Amino acid sequence: MYTLLSGLYKYMFQRDEYCILILGLDNAGKTTFLEQTKTRFNKNYKGMSLSKITTTVGLNIGTIDVGKARLMFWDLGGQEELQALWDKYYAESHGVIYVIDSTDEERLSESKRAFDLPVNP
Which residues are catalytic? Predict the structure, then answer.
């Protein structure tokens, strides 16, 4: 009986989870994008003050529920040392958002190099 009720509960309330990577160079606006997205889609989320956002060291995680789906955003640090870790997350992700600071023209070629980094399977 427990298995039947447990299965019914999961069928009614469990959401499909999708993991999305947010990648880009440091100071490209990845965390700002994540905070703005969480503010827009989570009604009760007040959001972090944009002036208090600092460089991501490691990983920020944000969750948004849209319909019957749960989107988990993984905001990975963009420093050169952390870019080598990006490919470790690809296998677990369902999508990638690559953020480019188009006003920082001096770093556009650096951003292209980071985007073109080979993926180690």
Answer: 79
**111 three-state secondary structure:** helix
Q: What is the pTM of this model?
A: 0.83
Look up the CATH superfamily of 15-115: P-loop containing nucleotide triphosphate hydrolases (3.40.50.300)
Tell me how far apart the alpha carbons of residues 30 and 24 are, in angstroms, rounded to a whole number.
7
Instruction: State the CB neighbour count (10 A cutoff) for residue 83.
Output: 19
Per-residue pLDDT 10s for the chain (121 aa) are: 778 887 777 777 788 999 999 999 999 999 999 999 999 988 888 877 777 888 887 889 999 998 889 999 999 999 988 888 898 999 999 999 999 998 999 999 999 999 888 776 5
